[in-house]
Protein: Transcriptional regulator
Amino acid sequence: MYKNSMVIGKFYPPHAGHAHLIAAAAAQSENVSVLVQGNRFESVTVADRTRWLSVEFADTPGVQVIAMRNDCPEDYHSEEIWKAQNELMRLALKSSGVTSIDAVFSSEEYGVQLAEAFGAEHVLVDLSRTTYPIGGTLCREDLGVAWPYIIGPARQELATRIIVVGAESTGTTTLARALSEHYRPRFPRLVDVSEYGREYTYEKFDALRAERADAVLDEMVWTEQDFGRIGARQNQMENDAADVCPLVIADTDSLATTLWERFYIGEHSYGSYHAAEQLPHRDLYLITDHEGVDFEDDGWREGEHRRAEMTEWFKETLTEKGHSWILVTGDHHRRMQTAVEIIDLILAQRSGFTSPPWATRTVLDGAEA
Structure:
């Protein structure tokens, strides 16, 4: 067992190969310092990468993840640049209470030179990347392909989340399904995140009918606990979808659940508010306009006369919470055109990993990846 080991990397973004390297170091060391290096030219902050790795290894004894700002150029053939880089690492370690290193774990050939600079042993782990055939370049260039390899905490925050909300019978489900079909050829693992509240309504009514066969819908009594379960389940469905695909299109969410709770029970009910406080990050809300859309009574709806009020609630709430939202109006074609135009731009922005000019590419099995 080594007493103090070090792992360095950009972790841009952190993936299964990185996790394997850190786990290998942890298995052979009392303490492992993971230096997360990030520079001003990269579009994912070093703080985010550090947090994701900290969550991933929260239950692994001895692992300490350290954020390290590093705007120094890279040049493996320059002794001066090596010294500048090493000093940044030494001070990052020193600031976290680490003054000596016994081993440097890496999957790179430069690990030998780095270990020598710290008077440590070099431990090479899976140089050929056969255990996990993944590199940072592939992750940055094609998130869809690389998604299963990116660590779980990073997937949750890197996923682009589009939430469709609106009053009853305003085309929310129609739009959400159409968007999913539009993007599924590009993202084959895209999951339909349906409105759990509707499913729960069916289950609740079936339970009432089991007690009394002649029961009618108006006799159902809604409680805070009902909306608490709906909100929590809606969050879980959304996060499960983000775990398997970098694009999430959801037909409502737990924040919308708080408004439906207000609609059915009143201002005094807060059963779903805890779930809404656990809301994952949002990229965009699409509010379906009630104007120009005929109300279709499918036997489960009761809010035709309150559609305008409910639409206003969505606008007010999303504005107060500081979320980005667009009112999608017009016919279905126009709504899709509006939605797709902005979603395409968001996807391009969210998947655009910028790098400085000296950044090197990971090469796997003789091919760039």
